[in-house]
# Entry
Amino acid sequence: MAAAQPLEHPSARPLGKPRLGPQARREEREFYLFISLWIIGFVLFDAGPILASFAISFTNWTALSDPQLVGLANYQRMLADPLFFTALWNSLYFGVGSVGLGLIVSFLLALLLNQRVWGMSLFRTIFYLPSVVSGIAVAILWIMILHKDFGLINSALAAIGIQGPGWLVEPQWAKPALILMSLWGAGGSMVIYLAGLQSVPQHLYEAAAIDGAGTWGRFWNVTVPLMSPVIFYNLIVGFIASIQGFVLVLIMTNGGPANATLMYGLYLYRVAFQFFQMGYASALAWVLLLVIMLITAAQFYFAKYWVFYEGDLKR
Amino acid sequence: MTLDEMPARSTTAAAPRRQPLLGLRAQALVQRIIVYALLLSLSVVFLLPFLWMLATSLKQSQEVFSYPPSFWPSSFEWQNYPAGWTILPFTTFLINSLIVTTANVVGNLLSCSLVAFGFARLRARGRDVLFLLLLATLMIPREVTIVPRFLLFSQLGLVNTLWPLVLPAWFGYAFFIFLLRQFFMSIPHELDDAARIDGASTLRILTDIILPLSGPALATVAIFSFIGNWSNLLDPLIYLRSQELYTLALGLNLFRGVNFTAFNLLMAVSIVTLIPVLVVFFLAQKLFVQGVTLTGMGGR
# Structure
């Protein structure tokens, strides 16, 4: 339920009259003084770069030559660039696959752990641990785990008589392999779901049981609606995070085989830092921003059909 | 049944209508057994990659690529660890990682405490709008700002220095500000008021009242900052050119590039780079869970 925490100051008194007394004016000055570091950072590292990349996207800046305005040429180039569409498709495939399956796996893990089992904190540690370690060491580990002949997964499959695929070397298996790997980190959102489950009031289950709801009925009519804001929150944040994650791919496959794992971020990185086409890279960045905003807006739009907020009942 | 999120006792209410085949006690027992069987087998699945990593790091090089593959090393080659470590100047990389990570943790703690205190405790026009703006920055994909940030740092002549990896942390980070603000708001206002009556300045209230009471939240920020920066590869990849500036993550990437088949040594060095993260995790596990539940975010 943490996601639904109110943003307002709990004891915030209304600001009152527009004309502020000296006390309030001093407090306001102090407020801006205290947050000044963030404002500088926001301008330098967030807002400034976003506006700059919008401007750069209309130039042919290569970081070697002076930029010249080229109008919409970068955006036109994108429409004719098959790699742009490949990268967009790969990222959406990975995003939907890893967030969707990740949701199911982490939710089921949370349900299991919420059984008030003995040793719950030990199991929680075990499931959570992989999501804490990240970065290159994990990428190297998974190159090995997914290895066609010597990998852990194919060895296990061979033990039960199945010939495993060349996970990272066959185009049709590379994306599923990356999604599989991402599931290892499902413990991160599991902890969030577990906290949510533990805040579901017991009396609702008891009321549902008295009304004759079985296990499934209680799950579907009590747990799922009450958890839906947390699920919604995790979908939004998870999707944005999954679209961004390309460092692992850079190390594990470098976009291969046959561009099957060329993620959007990886393509952008290449255009910017290997081909030094800052103009085109900025255009790619802006299209990504628009795609993410569209998808997030769509998620918010559809949320009203399935996300349930307890506060709604009280109206 | 595995979806049942309720303890066994509450099945009693629905049971008379259902006429269970087994007695209730037996049913509960079967359910328990299924739950534990699932938990144990899933634990094995989640832990196996770590064990495999450890096992591989101790194998002889020809054993890594033996067929059929073996899980357990036939002999424990502990010298893989010093051998891997000295292939590249990993001690230099370690020092760079320590510098970058420490500077980030300190910068995050200082800047985010100040900003979070402002948002949590001081009233001002425009505060709520600015706070929404702050949260919105969490939604900006890194790719959108990566190019202009690089151009900014290259204009400043800071490419191929450690500055681009360190400076941004000193200007606050939305996720940590949010986390600290949520925590600061849970501290009773009466404490501030009492201090104010005693003549304490606003800054004194932060340093003498709020911060001493915020140990767990500050520790959570320190840990998330540490882990995030320790494993950060993208920024070092973009900004560092000279090998003597490489961080551990970037050094490991270099090692992988030049010596791709020495998987046992690669695993050994990888494990060494993970040790600080694992130690911090086990020492401060409670804080992790607290941080996650306080903000509803997994520390991304």
About this structure: DSSP finds 15 helices and no strands in chain A. Chain A touches chain B through 118 residues (CB under 8 Å).
